[in-house]
Amino acid sequence: MTSDVLRIDGLRKAFGAQTILDGITQVVMKNEVVCLIGASGSGKSTLLRCINLLEKIDAGAIYLEGQCITAPGINENQVRKHIGIVFQSYNLFPHMTVDRNVTLGPVKALGMTKAEAAAEGAALLDRFGLADKRHDYPDRLSGGQQQRVAIVRALAMRPRLLLLDEVTSALDPELVAEVLDVIRELAEGGMTMVIATHEMGFAREIADRVCFLADGRIVEEAPPERLFTSPSDERTRKFLRRIVEAGRL
Amino acid sequence: MSPPSSPEGSALGDPAERELGGLNLLSGSRRSRLLGDPGSKRAVAVSTTSTIVVIGVLVVLFLLAPGSANVRHTFFNPANMWHSFIGDPKHGYYSVGAAIWLNIRMFGVAEAFILILGLVVAVVRQSTSPVMLPLRLVTTIYVDVARGVPLLLLIFAIGFGAPALGLRVISTQPAVVYGVAALVLSYSAYVSEVYRAGINSVHRSQVAAARSLGLSEWTALRYVILPQAIRNIIPPLLNDFISLQKDTALVAVLGTIEANRAAEIYSDTSFNYSSYVVAAILFLILTIPLARFTDRLIAKDRARRLAGTT
């Protein structure tokens, strides 16, 4: 057993003739929070979807706790039980109450009893201030509440790794904070996370390490203080300058 | 998706419309309230008046036609209508009113099988696994053939073909079983396409969300995709069932005495066609409530969608 949760080795991914990820190599240790930043279309989301096996990779390999999850014949469903992902547009199941959204995975994929899953789901919802929303349908909730439910839905699977794909990008500005608070709490609790984000201030605060993606590669990676204050690559500098000009840092 | 059919305006034409003038008036004024200014009494008055005028003109035209008396005698003779409705086995004809019960049962049984077979075919055709390729091929050919062959020919083919095979169980069924089988085969092909449209109407991100929880393809389909898909396709499904209700009459070609065939027997013995009008009215009594119900569901669904886009 190695203590790295995630290891990516020379990952390549193309859609048709367009190369999205061009040789990504990265290691994420237990309890580590890694933020992915970069312009739209730089491949952050695709990288997260590849890690969760939602996209087939063209070359390279991905290891979860030392086990190769991209080898042929691997059971994708088994792998996904251990890797949670939260999407930009929440993707809650609209025909199910909050309760059922949260317990569907534990019951159907983990084989928990309904009572077990309900108790655990209720505890998680309570922890993130959603106890009174348990019996509501998603369309009755605000965007921030929906995204918090989506995070709880991923957490209910007790994942070893949590992937967050620009989870605040679809939210109205006043709702961003409540979702970031949840992520902050998870980081403090030692959850291993890979976070694609446009919230530079948040990345700076929460990340152990920040990776800047451009042209399908990790151009630069460093602890946040160093990456945000003295980036060494020209492309990183340019990107950050634009962010500062836009008032986002 | 095909627009909702209007069984009121079917090939039955004027006679039925005249008989159901009161009903049409009701539905007409309701629709105008839906489309027009709902609060305006004037709009209701105008639409009611125009409906009465249109129906009145049609009735007058019918009554003034040179052969009107003749047509009224052969199609709308109250005595003949009553006799054909209650039937009289001693005089060699059956009750149309009792025979429609067979249509209702054929419809009920066929509908249950169609909902299941249509779903199975749709799910097989939507599958992506290479193992399923032979089944995908078979179902694709089935849908192409069953939709392409006229229902009447399908009824003939099964109704006369299956008994001729000389097999033990398959060839010894009553005609009505073959008729229902043909209805099931034909309609399941259409309904499977409706299901497929429903499945495709569920956004792909829902599949991603379900699979990302470690749910298998089948579990994701069963708990996440299908419940949403079926909610989306209830109006078009009901539309197909309105059509199925009246197509049960085609089973008559196998000699099954359902409403249409009972009416035919009556007209053969009495040389009066009023029995057909009775059958037509009975079919309308079945189809119109379902059509109105479908319209209401569509309106409710539209309201729900509009409310949901926040």
Strand order of the largest sheet of chain A: 6-7-8-3-9-10
CATH homologous superfamily heading of the largest domain in chain B:
MetI-like
Give the number of DSSP strands of chain A: 10
CATH architecture of the largest domain in chain B: Orthogonal Bundle
Instruction: Determine the structural class of chain A based on helices, strands and strand pairing.
Output: alpha/beta
| Helical content class of chain B | over 70%
Distance between the termini of chain B: 26 Å
- What is the count of helical runs of chain B? 13
How many DSSP H or I helices of chain A?
9
Strand element count of chain B: 0
Question: The CATH topology of chain A is what?
Answer: Rossmann fold
- The average pLDDT of chain B is 85
| Quaternary structure type | heterodimer
Q: Number of domains in the coordinates of chain B? A: 2
Summed up, what is this model?
With 249 residues, chain A is α/β, with parallel strands linked by helices. Chain A has helices at 44-51, 76-82, 98-108, 114-127, 143-155, 173-188, 200-206, 224-229, 234-245, and strands at 4-15, 18-29, 33-37, 59-64, 67-68, 83-86, 161-165, 193-196, 209-214, 217-222.
